[in-house]
Structure formats: C-alpha cells, structure tokens
Amino acid sequence: MKKQDMNRDWIATARTLSQALPYLQRYTGATVVIKLGGHAMGSDEAMEDFARDVVLMRQVGVNPVVVHGGGPMINAMLERLEIKSEFVNGKRVTDAATVEVVEMVLSGLVNKHIVQAINRQGGKSVGLSGKDADLMICDQTNPDLGFVGTPAEMNPEFLQELFATDTIPVIAPLGAGRNGETFNVNGDTAAGAIAAALTADRLLLLTDVAGVKGANGDVMTELKAQQIRDLTAEGVIAGGMIPKTETALSAIEGGVRAVVILDGRAPNACLLELFTEHGAGSLIRGD
C-alpha cells in the first residue's frame, strides 16, 4: 500500500473516532446485554472480532453482558453420544440425559470458548450460568417438555459487583429450579430476563438475519411495540422472528430502554449499532 493511501486510511479512522464521540459519551456507564446465538458465532475469526468489540465496549465505559446460545453444538453432541430427541409440537423434550448434555456443552465448551476469546483480546471475563448465585430461578415451562424452564425470579446483584471490577460476564442460559433441578432456558428468553433485571439500556439480539422485515421485504430500522404486534397479527412477522420480537416486547415491558435485532455475522455489528448515527438492524422501543 502506498504511503499516500495509508495516510488517507488513518485520516478516515481518526474522523470515524471523532464522529463516535457523542455516542461514546452517551453509553458511558450503560449496561448492554448481548445475546450471541449459536449460528451467529460463526468462525473462530468471527469470534475473535466479536470478543474485540466487547472488550472495546468495556474499555470506553460500557457494561457489556454476553448471554449465549449453542443449539448447533448441543445437536452435534447429542448426535455424537447417540442420544435421541423427542419433540412435542416442534419443541425438543429435554429429559434428564439431555439436560446433562445441554449443561456440559453450554456451561463448558461454548461458555469457556467465548470467555477465552474475550480474555485473549485483553478483557477480563468470567463464565457463569443462570444457576450461579441463583441469578435465574426458573419454573418448569411445560411438563411435557421436561427440564425446560421459564425465568420466574431474578437475582442480578452479583453482576453489578462484576461491573465494579471491570469484569465481563458471559452467561449460559441455564436456570436453577426451586427443588435443585437444572432447567434449560431459551437463550433469547434468558437474555431478555437478564436485561430486564438489570434495567439495561440496550438488549442486542444477534441473529443470522439483518433485522425485522416489513411487508415489502426491506429491513425496518425503527419500530414501536404496537407496530410489532400489528405486523405479527398480519403475518408479516412470522416463523423464527416471532420469539425474538416477543422477547423484545417482554424486555421493554420489563424496563429495558430499547431492543435491537441485528445480524451477528456482520463485522463489528455491536459497535455499528451503539457508536454510529445509522446503527444496525431493527431498533424496537416502547409505545
């Protein structure tokens, strides 16, 4: 690369940083919960890029909390162990054998992979699950589904203590039952419950689509809660987007300022959303 081109790139970088200043100031001290889906984790390179972004967020005063899924990894391990799954109305039944595998994969393999990536980028991260410090006490969602839980009681105080030491929590979506059970919790649901318990400024749902699409197929950059309800009733919001928008509405009702559904595969997606004027994905606010 010619010296003149290099100078031009550095000037562009400096201008970008300068333009980001109001947004950096805006989010100083803010809590941002990030749901990292199994499909959005992508390659090792993508994980390193995500980790670098999270460390940068912490460096400029944001309190990031990462809540992760791991569906593809769970499926692969169940297949490897030859544990067959049963389904009720399209939902996996989590029996005693399956929940052991879920905990092993989420709290072990996936959780520590993310923690190590953040630490390699210079951050200070610790891996947890919703069972630690009774963060997420759950009730059984449906007896027919086995050990699948719905968050019923949240205790986020120890997360605030981690913020005070510049520590980035990485949380596996497992909850504790009232009788010592381990419950598998939908990752989006867990992230929404944690964000509401922390009264987070933002909940970022990283997925494998660009955002909520309107009837014409274009991504809608800003929506109100009632628009989400109307689009769902009209069938425009359908399929796998429904549980994500339901999580968004529940989180907003619980006190989260805004929720963003965005493509986690896009480079620097979180930074673009928080620290640029145009943002990324679909921003959902209350009415």
From TrEMBL:
Binding-site positions, substrate: G70, G71, R92, N184
Subcellular locations according to the entry: Cytoplasm
Enzyme Commission number(s) of this protein: 2.7.2.8
CDD domains registered for this protein in UniProt: AAK_NAGK-C
Span of the signal peptide: none
Domain Aspartate/glutamate/uridylate kinase span(s) in chain numbering: 31-262
GO annotations of cellular component type: cytoplasm
Positions bearing the site annotation: Transition state stabilizer: K35, K244
Keywords assigned: Amino-acid biosynthesis, Arginine biosynthesis, ATP-binding, Cytoplasm, Kinase, Nucleotide-binding, Transferase
Pathway: Amino-acid biosynthesis; L-arginine biosynthesis; N(2)-acetyl-L-ornithine from L-glutamate: step 2/4
Catalysed reactions, as listed in the record: N-acetyl-L-glutamate + ATP = N-acetyl-L-glutamyl 5-phosphate + ADP
Origin superkingdom: Bacteria
Protein task: Catalyzes the ATP-dependent phosphorylation of N-acetyl-L-glutamate.
Name the UniProt record assigns to this protein: Acetylglutamate kinase
